[in-house]
Amino acid sequence: MAGGAVIENLSNRKLFVIFAALLVVQILFFLVGAWFxxxxxxxxxxxxxxxxxxxxxxxGKWIHRDNCQQIPELSEYxxxxxxxxxxxxxxxxxxxxxxxxxxxxxxxxxxxxxxxVDVEYSEHFRYVAHxxxxxxxxxxxxxxxxxxxxxxELTTSNVTRILECTIPEEDKKAGSxxxxxxxxxxxxxxxxxxxxLINIRIPIDQQACQYxxxxxxxxxxxxxxxxxxxxxxxxxxxxxxxxxxTFMTPVVVACLWWYYNRIxxxxxxPLLLERAILYLGLSLAILDFPIEWISLTTRVPFLLLLAxxxxxxxxxxxxxxxxxxxxxxxxxxxxxxxIKSYRFNLSFIIIASGALLIYDLIExxxxxxxxxxxxxxxxTGSQIAYVAIFISAVCTVAYFVFLLFKIVRVWTTIKSKRSxxxxxxxxxxxxxxxxxxxxxxxxxxxxxxCAAFTIIxxxxxxxxxxxxxxxxxxxxxxxxxxxxxxxxxxxxxNIYVLLLLxxxxxxxxHYRGAIQLIDENDDEIIDDxxxxxxxxxxxxxxxxxxxx
Amino acid sequence: xxxxxxxxxxxxxxxxQAQSLLDASWWSTVAQLSTxxxxxxxxxxxxxxxxxxxxxxxCELFKDHMPAVSIGAQNAIQECQRQFTGHRWNCSTHYxxxxxxxxxxxxxxxxxxxxxxxxxxxxHEIGRRCKQGxxxxxxxxxxxKPKNVPNDWSWGGCGDNVEYGYxxxxxxIDIREKEHDPxxxxxxxxxxxNRRNNEAGRKILKRHRxxxxxxxxVSGACNMKTCWMQLPSMEQVxxxxxxxxxxxIRVQINDRGNLQLLADETSKERKTRALPTDLVFMDDSPxxxxxxxxxxxxxxxxxxxxxxxxxAEGCDSLCCGRGYNTYTQEIKSKCNCKFEWCCKVVxxxxxxxxxxxxxx
Lengths: 548, 360
Hints:
The complex is a heterodimer of chains A (548) and B (360).
Chain A: H1 12-36, E1 41-47, E2 49-52, E3 69-70, E4 87-93, E5 96-97, E6 100-101, E7 111-120, E8 131-142, E9 152-163, E10 165-166, E11 179-180, E12 183-188, E13 195-201, H2 206-211, E14 222-233, H3 235-265, H4 272-288, H5 303-328, H6 343-367, H7 379-420, H8 427-468, H9 481-503, H10 508-511, H11 524-527, H12 538-547
Antiparallel strand pairs in A: 1-14, 2-3, 2-4, 4-13, 5-6, 7-12, 7-14, 8-9, 8-13, 10-11
Helix pairs in contact in A: 1-9, 3-4, 3-9, 4-5, 4-9, 5-6, 5-7, 6-7, 8-9, 8-12
Chain B: H1 4-21, H2 26-31, H3 33-38, H4 53-61, H5 66-83, H6 109-132, H7 152-156, H8 161-178, H9 188-207, E1 210-215, E2 225-230, H10 234-246, E3 249-253, E4 259-261, E5 280-281, E6 291-292, E7 297-298, E8 304-305, H11 315-318, E9 324-340, E10 344-359
Parallel strand pairs in B: 3-5
Antiparallel strand pairs in B: 1-2, 3-4, 6-7, 8-10, 9-10
Helix pairs in contact in B: 4-8, 5-6, 5-10, 6-8, 6-9, 6-10, 8-9
Main location (chain A): membrane
Membrane topology (chain A): Multi-pass membrane protein
GO molecular function (chain A): Wnt-protein binding
């Protein structure tokens, strides 16, 4: 067991100072989010205008506001064709505001599109539940310096989604509107063009409808309009976020380097727990690395996927670390310090993150080629997605059950050790066991504290968001808390790992020259002159009430 | 509904003669703005009679908003008529003038409802036009940003469209009630009441927005979430206002020139405070039975009623005891429709003979 970590040799005073400093840093992180950053993301809503295109899209020309033969009221329009391809739904993103043509900037990081379909109740065009909706979507882009309507093709796609609408029974009369679920339309992993244009056609194959009413667009009811909601990350938030990452990366790397040197200076091989902490630090460094800077100059659509992967890696390592940490503190377990003994429990984490990885690779991976792809749109796809999410959820629950089980076991061991008072006979042995207990309790307490903070912050965020949607948009302290939650959680994550790296590094006060594994090295502590309790030691005071 | 074009001609013909008669119905003017704006040859629209000087100014400044104002008003009146079908007061207008808006010379519940739904309708439509990108002046949010960041939109996104509609509607509609127009005999209490009801309509629209959210965190998890507010449809607003109409609160003007709640003897619980979304009124409603030019009521003569019904649409109630005439009516409709290959729907015409009861 890794005895003699830094934590055991810190005085109360030092520990208090460190904690106070970290608390200040944590509050700073929180305040940066609350004061400087705007809300993390915002949206823009587009009511798609309807235009007439006699060529039915065969000419390949873009329909935009300036060449639009607008259809003012869709229900009063008599189409010349039966497949309705002549009706085009058009939206140009973003809007002009205050007479200025707004532009998307690379700072926005990503663009998501969500579609709202407005369906009116009608006796003639009945909506049937779970009706498949097929859209022919064309998305174009325009560079900054180009002509006003010089649109270039970004992607063309046939999109099928299931339209889920409900209406209360008493409202079933003409003129009432259905309440429809929104549909995911597209997801762009980078916002590298300033303007986008979307043309949507909703073709109806009358013949197919005759043979099979379940075919696309036959049962979508009386569609009165499409509304597009575009979501992006705010530039201000990206700025604050990136600078925070840029600031944290060197700190994490330096700390990691120090820790690495510490365990390398040991004459023995690093313990499993020490290696686990090292990997945890490494995954944090990967998570923190501000690779997003390059998206501001070059087009890198895979950043969204990369961000997911990095976060997934970090959580996998963190969960594994908790498991190993609890296991390594089972004092009487002889199978410790061996990754293989955790095989069974670790497999849960691996399966859970593996399933999510597969889901993410399919969803966001395919979106690199086709932004309109959604794994949920096809029956098989959504089955795969459900299975993946179900598996990972089950595995995560199983993992936490095992973790809890392990923690309880550690506690009971500690308790039985205490009540038996066996180790009291040997002063050295006692200190060693106490050290193990202390280290375990410290991390437990700290982890619980962090979890509590995160949960409180999460609820504050929820509360703040609820405030925003009240009658009046109040700009109180909590309304800015969404960003503060993200920066605070980011800070907490970093502080947690940095503290682990610092506190659980082997202390060279005792063990610099140790050759053997500590378990066999029973006399070392007594020999060391620095351990004569000249100063009130945090560990001893911490344990006093229970040992007395 | 009368086809719009015929309607429009009617309006133009009647505007002049109607003006002397119907000062209170400036709304009908507003509702016609879109048709007036549609042709380029029409003389300056903002000088339409019915607009107050302040409104004419706003109109001049925001010409592109006027179609929205007009459509919004039309939608509101349509919804009002739907809510009150079969009632003695059915939100209808003078048959002779073809005016769209109902007329209120007295400060009744009905006036309160009309003002509220009209201002809600305008707010709704302005918000919608904003989203279509048809209005150039919808504003961005006022997110605080460091000075060296050039564009506040990139920094913190753009504001809510409803907020814009709300402000515009307040500026355009309420300005009328704040002005002292020498041509109209100024009634402070009525102005306060109108403003309050206008505000109630807008507030109800705003308050009944529903948040819709999209999760877009890691693997679509909900740690990242963006929400937007979805406006209620005019139909929902109409329903809510209809309830508010039933619970409208009587007020009077006190010595200080403020609105004061009036104790209502009929209801047991005494209300001490009116919510900002409550409708307020001052005068008792007339019975709306007879045409009365003075109070601006049309009467129920010629209305279709339902025989044997005990509700408001029943002939006993609707015809105010004057009795009714019964006519047979033949309605032609499409029926037995068949789909023919390819791509044609063939229908037969069916005649339905029904009896209609019409108030004397």
